[in-house]
Design goal:
Blueprint: E1 4-6, E2 13-24, E3 40-48, E4 54-56, H1 62-65, H2 78-94, E5 102-106, H3 114-119, E6 123-127, H4 131-139, E7 144-145, H5 151-161, E8 164-170, H6 179-189, E9 190-201, H7 203-209, E10 221-222, H8 225-233, E11 237-245, E12 251-258, H9 266-278, H10 283-309, E13 314-317, H11 323-330, E14 339-342, E15 359-361, E16 372-375, H12 381-387, H13 389-393, E17 397-400, E18 406-408
Parallel strand pairs: 5-6, 5-8, 6-7, 8-9, 13-14, 13-16, 14-15, 16-17
Antiparallel strand pairs: 1-2, 2-3, 3-4, 4-10, 9-12, 11-12, 17-18
Helix pairs in contact: 5-6
The protein binds S-adenosylmethionine (SAM), thymidine-5'-phosphate (TMP) and zinc ion.
Residues 76-77, 318-321, 342-344, 347, 362, 377, 379-380, 383-384 line the site of thymidine-5'-phosphate.
Length: 410
């Protein structure tokens, strides 16, 4: 019998379907010498038998993850910057014919999206608890409030700025276990025809691609149209649109409105039907995922062990939060992967959490090129392969592990 816990959305019964064991915080890159102070928790996922939300069974206190030292920078990818500009332009255009519109972003990080909104002269506010990245946003001319968004913060934002025409959140809502407080806050902040738009990794893509490394401390929920519709309905909101996105390995952009305010699009009914067809609301389908994860883990460990035994050099590319899950689940450490290259200054000179592989600046990749590169930032494959042509030309090979372990020379 699987363990059960209580659903953070509806208080129904959550049945566990996979346990990744003891894991560190995915973005807690360790200073050499401080390995003994690391925080660990049990990373396991389950499905609520009532609202169908897939969720973690253990919650990490939010201040441990989101604080002054939060190292992730949203503007670290050129292709994602173009994505954020397009999102911002959409809001600017949509609100163009309104009188003095107001756009709020939850988790604005370093301001990469709101910067465009600010430049267009549209009234806006970013709510961002991680102080270091919030300061970067402020430096770009973005108005930021350093806070965790929740019900009381929403009330004070409304009192100060008035109702919001758009509330946006990208790769942030799925990070927040206390969803009731968030959705009540959004509902009270929205103007009568306002919309809450959020984009997050899609459960359907995670299951279809076995992209299990999307499961880590910060990703508390794995949304689908069924679970989002259910959580919205609990708080006077309604799912009115869905749009599949290719970014970050496959996401969905959900649009919620006040219940009854807007007519749901045909895309909502279509995605709900697709999810039933794919068995995404069914515990048996989710259990099948575990066997595929184990196979990937075994194949990757066997490949890296063989390469080490043959004296080949393997370096990983991208000290992603995602990589914590595969490294710690599979027990991969510096004996199998000599270093991880990454462009983020706050990650360089540190060690990967739990697995303690040194992180070095991206320039070190070619100094000299390794024989194999393990692509942790697989969601940025196009951009990275494009700029690392020299690696391929040197005879280097890429290793990827989603949806299965592959070695390629292109
Ligand atoms: N929106 C950016 C993007 O898509 O690249 C940043 C995503 S980052 C993975 C998640 C962000 O959510 C972090 O900057 C974190 O500090 C912020 N965050 C966490 N809890 C929050 C909350 N309750 N309210 C607002 N932001 C929050
Ligand atoms: P993400 O998958 O959560 O967006 O994280 C991507 C990580 O990979 C982040 O630490 C930045 C790093 N990165 C590089 O080092 N080089 C690159 O070209 C890109 C796109 C990302
Ligand atoms: Zn539930």
């Amino acid at each position: 019998m699987a363990d059960t816990t209580s659903c953070r959305i509806c208080e129904g019964t959550v049945e566990e379907f996979f346990d990744f064991g003891r894991q560190p915080l995915s973005n807690a890159f360790v200073k050499p010498g401080e390995e003994k102070d690391e925080f660990f928790f049990r990373l396991a996922v389950g499905l609520c038998s009532d609202c169908r939300m897939v969720q973690l069974v253990e919650e990490v206190p939010r201040e441990r993850m989101f604080n002054e030292d939060y190292p992730y920078l949203s503007s670290g990818s050129v292709l994602m910057k173009a994505h954020w500009e397009a999102v911002a332009q959409r809001f600017v255009d949509r609100e163009d014919n309104r009188d003095d519109p107001f756009v709020v972003e939850l988790g604005c990080n370093d301001g990469v999206m709101l910067e465009t909104v600010a430049k267009a002269g549209v009234r806006h506010l970013g709510v961002e608890p991680s102080g270091g990245v919030a300061d970067l946003a402020a430096g770009k001319g973005v108005l930021v409030r350093k806070d965790f968004f929740e019900e009381d913060v929403a009330a004070s934002v409304r009192a100060e700025h008035g109702p919001a025409d758009v509330v946006f959140a990208a790769n942030t809502l799925c990070h927040i276990p206390y969803m009731g407080s968030i959705l009540r806050g959004v509902r009270d902040l929205l103007a009568p025809k306002g919309v809450f738009v959020f984009e997050d990794p899609y459960l359907g893509d995670i299951m279809a691609k076995t992209s299990f490394d999307q499961i880590y401390d910060e990703h508390f929920y794995f949304f689908g149209a069924h679970s989002v519709r259910a959580m919205a309905a609990l708080h006077g909101l309604e799912l009115v649109d869905v749009e599949r996105l290719p970014v970050h390995g496959g996401e969905v952009r959900y649009t919620l409105a006040l219940a009854g305010a807007l007519t749901p699009s045909a895309a909502v009914a279509a995605l709900l039907a697709e999810e039933v067809e794919a068995g995404l609301t069914d515990l048996e389908t989710l259990r099948g995922f575990g066997a595929r994860v184990q196979r990937i883990s075994d194949d990757l460990t066997a490949l890296l062990t063989d390469l080490r035994d043959q004296g080949r050099r393997v370096v990983a590319y991208g000290a992603t939060a995602k990589s914590a899950t595969i490294l710690n689940y599979s027990g991969i450490g510096p004996d199998l992967v000599e270093a991880v290259v990454d462009t983020t200054p706050a990650k360089q000179g540190r060690l990967t959490p739990g697995s303690h592989i040194p992180i070095v600046p991206a320039e070190r990749f070619q100094d000299p090129y390794p024989d194999y590169a393990l692509l942790f930032a697989w969601n940025h494959a196009e951009e990275i392969r494009g700029k690392e042509e020299g690696f391929r030309a040197s005879g280097g090979r890429w290793i990827t592990y989603v949806p299965e372990v592959r070695v390629t020379s292109d």
